[in-house]
Design goal:
mainly alpha
């Protein structure tokens, strides 16, 4: 169990963790039961960071600094997957799309998509009312790290593609999916009551919809698609947090 936790922390963050962990895709898939808790720890750290920065800087600047810390702590791993998927979607067929996604260079669609994505995340975070901002910051990374488990148990992998994530997808267990889902639901309800559940569901729905598009376009799901799901689920939680707060406070 400790090895699985270490593996999850090392894969999902850049935090140096002593101890024995494994780095292969199969081991990471078996460690997926820890993903939600790693996301929770990341969210708590971001909420504390935001609490401090809001006392030093205006909301927009604080949001930008928090978003910077957020992406630095994760090493930009999932942003790379999102950019690759956006580039691949512009291809004329699945084989060409997979070839483009294997290319380490970023294309026009990926670059523009990342800019728009980060702008959306920045504005959504800046517009969150303070009464729900910390709670939403705790919830978003947690939902984001649970999203790959949902996709892994829903869509088949692209087994013919290198870096497809097929070993990870096949290693994710039903117990990890259920345990992670219960954890996310409990934390969401404790943080924001029904609104937390709505925000979590919105994030997972956005990630699932993207997974459906990627799976149909590429004839299966890739590791890049799983990474993109993390980012889109987080964005979905932020956007839902803003919308729910506006409706509740209106």
């Amino acid at each position: 169990m400790l090895s699985g936790l270490i593996t999850a922390v090392r894969f999902l963050t850049v935090v140096p963790v002593p101890g024995k962990g494994l780095d292969d895709a199969d081991a990471i898939g078996r460690a997926a039961a820890w993903f939600s808790l790693v996301g929770l720890a990341l969210g708590l750290l971001l909420a504390v960071t935001d609490w401090v920065l809001l006392r030093l800087f205006p909301p927009l600047l604080s949001a930008l600094l928090v978003l910077t810390v957020w992406k630095l702590l994760t090493g930009g791993l999932h942003l790379d997957g999102l950019a690759d998927c956006l580039d691949g979607l512009a291809a004329r067929d699945a084989d060409r799309a997979l070839a483009i996604m294997r290319d380490s260079r970023i294309g026009t669609f990926g670059a523009v998509g990342l800019i728009l994505f980060l702008l959306l995340a920045l504005v959504a975070l800046a517009e969150l009312p303070r009464v729900v901002r910390s709670q939403t910051l705790v919830l978003a990374p947690m939902v984001g790290r649970y999203a790959p488990l949902v996709l892994a148990r829903t869509f088949p992998p692209v087994s013919s593609a290198p870096r497809s994530g097929s070993a990870f997808i096949q290693a994710v267990s039903g117990a990890a999916l259920v345990g992670g889902g219960v954890t996310v639901a409990v934390v969401a309800a404790l943080l924001l009551r029904p609104y937390g559940l709505i925000a979590a569901a919105a994030g997972l729905l956005l990630a699932w919809a993207a997974g459906w598009v990627f799976s149909r376009r590429l004839r299966g799901l890739t590791g890049d698609g799983l990474g993109a799901a993390v980012e889109l689920a987080e964005l979905g939680v932020l956007l839902a947090g803003v919308a729910v707060a506006r409706l509740a406070l209106a």
